Amino acid sequence: MTTEPASLESLGVLFQSDDFIVVDKHWDIRIDSKMWYEKHTVQAQLRHRFPQLADPSTYYGFRFCHQLDFSTSGALCVALNKAAAGRAYRCFKDRTVTKAYLALVRGLVEKETQTLEFSIGKNSSEGKTHMMCIEGTEGCENPKPCQTELTVLEYGLYDGGPVTKVLLQPLTGRTHQLRVHCSAIGHPIVGDFTYSSGADDAPYRMMLHAHFLHIPLEPEPLLVSGEDPFLPALDPKWLPQRSLRTLTTTVEALLERRLEEDRKIKEEKRERARKEEERRKGRKERRTKEEIEEQTRQCQEWLSEWAGD
Prior knowledge:
Layout: E1 12-16, E2 20-25, H1 42-49, E3 63-64, E4 73-79, H2 82-93, E5 98-106, E6 113-116, E7 120-123, E8 132-134, E9 140-144, E10 148-158, E11 161-170, H3 177-184, E12 208-215, E13 222-225, E14 238-243, H4 247-308
Parallel strand pairs: 4-12
Antiparallel strand pairs: 1-2, 2-4, 3-4, 5-11, 5-12, 6-10, 7-8, 7-9, 10-11, 10-14, 12-13
């Protein structure tokens, strides 16, 4: 990741197979656009780098499995065929995908690990219809439950002001969820012009990066982890002062928890299926027994009638 603006050539690739490409999306670039003046998009970068992989049957040439905000950088999965897109779509639909984002947020977050559970809806207030908002605020329409896990990694300074480096795991997928949740606890993301009411405009970018992506595809899961773009070597304005835990061990623990949860869910499904099969067999056996008893009764009646005759 670089502090330079995006160009057609600045497309990083984190993973590539016959079915998928995971690109390292640049900050401040749209995934795709129908506007003629939008020359630099991820779609255009892909066409430039991999023209032979573009699918003419799709509008943009590539099937993006999920979305990242214009201002967010990091891992973005692209399916290279319809079948692969369907497999990935089912994982996202079933909420079995694990994503984790790195962020620098304003201020010092005191609680080291926490679950943010603000419901988020569309902001209908004049001049803010491009924004989302938490339930209870003026103009908030159709709020839906949202959850984000927050883990503090480091405390430090950015351009002289106190900031915290955090790992964010969205458990739901509402628009602008991470940005709204961080703002709701009084720690907006550094450089988030929109959710700082236009005040935080000094940084060269919004400090939110999709660092980790795990899609439990069969037979092999897709697992991608990118670099940390928030390092003093890349941005000398960021000065770490106190580390609580490393990024690597935190992500490993997060993935292990998720895999354990998935194992439990699969075991519960298997157990439910086993019990349902037992009930089905039991019902069948009862029906068979009842049918035999009915047939026996009818035979006895016929025998009785025959004997009487």
